[in-house]
Design goal:
InterPro entries: DUF4956 (IPR032531). Helix content is about 55%, strand content about 15%. It contains nine helices and four strands, in the order αααααααβαββαβ.
Length: about 230
């Protein structure tokens, strides 16, 4: 009969797994992931051009980078854990809609940074994040792109179509008809896509004051049109 000594009593697979990774390396990876997350946070705040800024979404980018690094550190030393983690993450479904395509870019940036930090590729994630941040700051803040507008005019007299066209041509750099429809009661509605000069929208008052015009509405247009 084998004798059990004192060390066998306290021998544990949990302790063996704990000693299989470096606490210092893990802390360095998490700290770097936190630093990169803060950098992503700052770049997102500086380049945000929407209407409503979401502070919680920006904070989630920091946590996303750190959580991804933590996952990579955990599965890198255990094959069974990596398979189980893949299976667990495969059932996760994100229900929050992403309205701005640039938000997807920041989410992907945070995830990739976390993966690189967890894998220990610290110089690569630092250099790559600096270059990505520079590109975003330059192209979003320095280069201004004038978004077109949609002008929706509803009128009852078809004879105003030619004068309406002249007014729009005079106050816009470029315009084109997107749709035209006839409403019940002989009402007409026409939609223009226009690029205005010097962001001057005052000419819509002239259009709304034209005889036969019932309404004139100008909307910001992101380039997607549904007929």
């Amino acid at each position: 009969m084998e004798s059990i000594n004192f060390s066998d009593i306290f021998k544990s697979s949990f302790l063996e797994k704990t000693s299989s990774f470096s606490i210092i390396d893990s802390l360095i990876g998490l700290i770097v992931a936190f630093g990169i997350g803060l950098f992503i946070y700052w770049v997102y705040k500086k380049t945000f051009s929407g209407v409503i800024y979401s502070h919680t979404f920006n904070i989630s980018l920091i946590v996303m980078a750190m959580a991804t690094a933590l996952i990579i550190m955990g599965i890198s030393s255990n094959i069974l854990l990596s398979l189980g983690m893949v299976g667990a993450l495969s059932i996760v479904r994100f229900r929050t809609p992403i309205k701005d395509p640039m938000d997807i870019v920041y989410i992907f940036w945070a995830i990739v940074s976390g993966i690189l930090c967890g894998a220990g590729l610290i110089p690569l994630v630092i250099i790559g994040s600096i270059l990505i941040g520079f590109v975003l700051l330059f192209f979003i803040n320095r280069i201004k792109i004038e978004n077109p507008y949609l002008l929706v005019v509803r009128y009852s007299d078809r004879s105003i179509e030619t004068p309406l066209e002249h007014v729009i041509a005079e106050h816009s750099m470029k315009h084109s008809i997107k749709s035209k429809s006839v409403m019940p009661g002989d009402d007409h509605e026409i939609t223009y896509e226009i690029r205005i000069k010097e962001n001057n929208t005052s000419f819509i008052n002239n259009i709304s004051g034209m005889k036969g015009v019932k309404s004139a509405i100008m909307l910001s247009y992101d380039g997607n049109f549904t007929a």
